[in-house]
Amino acid sequence: MKRHLLIRILLSLLGTAFILWGVAHLLLAFCGVPATATITSIRRVGGERAEITPGRYTYSIGYTFLLPDGQPVDGVTTQIGDAIFLKATGAGIVAVRYLKPLPAVNVLEKDALSAGPVILMLTGGLLLFFSNRRQKLN
Questions:
Q1: How much is the mean pLDDT over the chain?
Q2: Is residue 128 one of the residues assigned to a domain?
Q3: Confidence label for 131 from pLDDT (cuts 50, 70 and 90)
Q4: pTM of the prediction?
């Protein structure tokens, strides 16, 4: 019985975290402060992706932007691209959005309004629903 309760609590916490993560990303799209970031690193992660289209790789892209007081804030995103490897020269810039009270919560502006946050919130809602529904007794 205790094990069943522990699993329900963990799934509820995970569902709540997914919902909060999705809401934070949607908040960035509407309430986030815009800034310009400089790309600092581009790393290819793993090998070729197991997809129908050959030559596709996952890239981890690091960027840094400055707050109005001059304090630097780092961020990272993941993109899928082809086999052409790009080197970060410090000249590449991207638009980002961040939460003013917590600048560590930031996202690329082009990713702020994507399907990802909605999928996270739906997944969290399903986890909460299935972990907290009552079992019918026969």
A1: 87
A2: yes
A3: confident
A4: 0.77
User: Token pair 């090998």 is at which residue?
Assistant: 47
pLDDT digits (tens, 9 = 90+) for 37-79: 999 998 888 887 888 878 888 888 999 999 999 999 999 998 8
Q: Are 65 and 75 in contact (CB under 8 A)?
A: yes
Per-residue pLDDT for 122 more than 70? yes
102 CB neighbour count, 10 Å cutoff: 9
Which of left, alpha, beta for 90 (phi over 0: left; psi -120 to 50: alpha)? left
Beta carbons within 10 angstroms of residue 53's beta carbon: 7
Say how far apart CA 127 and CA 54 lie, in whole Å. 35
Say which residue the tokens 């310009």 belong to. Answer: 36
Q: Where are the strands (E) in 55-100, listed by range?
A: 57-66, 72-81, 93-98
Instruction: Let me know whether 94 and 121 are in one domain.
Output: no
Closest CA to 21 of 91, 128, 121, 133: 121
Helix (H) or strand (E) holding 88: none
Q: Do residues 37 and 27 share a domain? A: no
Contact 59, 47 (CB under 8 A): no
